[in-house]
Amino acid sequence: MEQSVQHGRQLDHLSSAPAPGPSPFAAFGMPGPGALPGAAPPEPRPILELHGQEREDEQDALTDWVDDFLLPVYGAEVTTAAPWCPQWQKHDDVLAWLHALWLAYQQHKDPEAGLSGLFVWHRDFLTHAMAAIRAPGGPLSACMTSPERPTHRILPGPTPSARSDQASEAPTEPASSGFELTA
What we know:
The protein has 5 helices and no strands. It is an all-alpha fold. It is 43% helix and 0% strand.
């Protein structure tokens, strides 16, 4: 008889509506079933798309994170195999890489990322970004390779493609294919 009562309670519990709680879809930025989407958080924008005070504020916050967290923990020694630049903010590509790394860090340290969030950040973001930024032939290769000789130099980038020059010149005759049709 007692077992029947327990089964009845269990059936009542299973047939009742679930208690409100966090949506299992929240980690994907989606509301749960039947839920209306709330005000979406602002979408992060790449730092190179920001201008004026907005870019300056974002760069200041990024610099604090790089100087206070990233470099002391993951900076490693400065060598020819792992160069660094004390003026890394002036290298647009490095600024973009570190900003993306910082955004990913913020996402993966959030409790909604779960217990493995920071492991994913280390595996998928940190290792790759630092290897690209500090590569011997990377964007900082002309900068500091020894802490005793702080240097900063931006290497020239590629020139615009020839196509942009040709687009302004209109062809006067159709291009010849090298073949001539005869009747």
